[in-house]
């Protein structure tokens, strides 16, 4: 491949007007390409820049100079991609940035594909595959905890945990192979107990990672959350409280919320995708009955239900049917309107839904308690982002394959099958983990990973 084809360029800032716009160039001809477009005021050449260098000057295309710019030169291998990188920052108008990119392409770079800079960083050993995936998560992180988890993954927390399991399995596998090949030689005898214990530990670590994935999903993607409760208990008011602005229609007329109102809100670190629902009232009206059926369906499929009750009134039939409906759901009971004299049967609610919060949606009193109860119900409070978590479906599938293979190896050992069978299972486990970390991964998998990225990253 000619050198110029290997040099890629893209706009690295968002495709919108901003303070500055950056065109990033990476590859062995990055400096030559930049030098054709950029002229430093000092007369210095980009070609001669050493280490990290910032130069101020102007950028030009065939029609002449069109903006002031700063060129940041990162000499290989000390750059994001590990190659020579030049970042040209110009004023942020979209027109200017696009013109700059066009000039750079005309000067010999080719347009970068999605995630191609990060792919090169991975191929040049600057970043692990899980680290590269974390870059993506970092860009999309919705909350503080999610960002912390992504940053920890980028810094290799996940890699460390996986490597621990991987080393164990590779060591067992090597030991086993040596023993199968030369049983009469001087290789220490296989100690079945220690062997079993190591496998059990590996399995446990993998199971820990897998259960962390499900909990981590909550902070990465948010939770499908349903607001339930009979009319007039204050669902819309609560939704407005959580979203921090008036969206739902609050009325004194029961049953006003006909259509589902949806809103994404953040409760501390948890992102809730909230849907207000029609109630569970018995009704002859076919339109309302359809709404009730939809509510029932949503209660079953939701990741979290906020079941709202009116503190100032005794539980009625509809409240009780909601309690019954929620026996198996992940739910928090919200006793609303606690600013009024309390008449509701709190014990009866708590018997059905252990997490109970007292709140006044109208005044906001109890908001913190609600946030805590939601974190408790979702198990997000126990997430330690720094511990390293599986972050993508791909990673999860690899960990799952590894766990199943470890389990197979244990069973083969216990059932007294040949050591070959154990060995095959261990090799499967190792292969799955090597794919997880990206140490042994196909181009097709890489294509999939980086297709999720935006161009310019
Ligand atoms: P929804 O039908 O469940 O959505 O209930 P709304 O949010 O529309 O509220 C019904 C009525 O209860 C309205 O008049 C609200 O102002 C009132 N309300 C809601 N929350 C509170 C509260 O915390 N305290 C009191 N006193 N009234 C409330
Ligand atoms: Zn409402």
TrEMBL record:
UniProt keyword list: Cytoplasm, GTP-binding, Hydrolase, Magnesium, Metal-binding, Nucleotide-binding, Potassium, tRNA processing
Cross-referenced PROSITE patterns: G_TRME
Keyword presence, Electron transport: no
Residue ranges of every copy of the TrmE-type G domain listed in the record: 222-379
Compartment(s) where it occurs, according to its Swiss-Prot or TrEMBL record: Cytoplasm
Nucleotide-binding in keyword set: yes
Record-linked Gene3D superfamilies: P-loop containing nucleotide triphosphate hydrolases, Probable tRNA modification gtpase trme, domain 1, tRNA modification GTPase MnmE domain 2
Cofactor(s) listed in the protein's UniProt record: K(+)
Protein name, UniProt field: tRNA modification GTPase MnmE
Cofactor binding, note field: Binds 1 potassium ion per subunit.
Binding site for Mg(2+): 236, 257
Assembly notes: Homodimer. Heterotetramer of two MnmE and two MnmG subunits.
Binding site for (6S)-5-formyl-5,6,7,8-tetrahydrofolate: 24, 87, 126, 457
Protein family (similarity comment): Belongs to the TRAFAC class TrmE-Era-EngA-EngB-Septin-like GTPase superfamily. TrmE GTPase family.
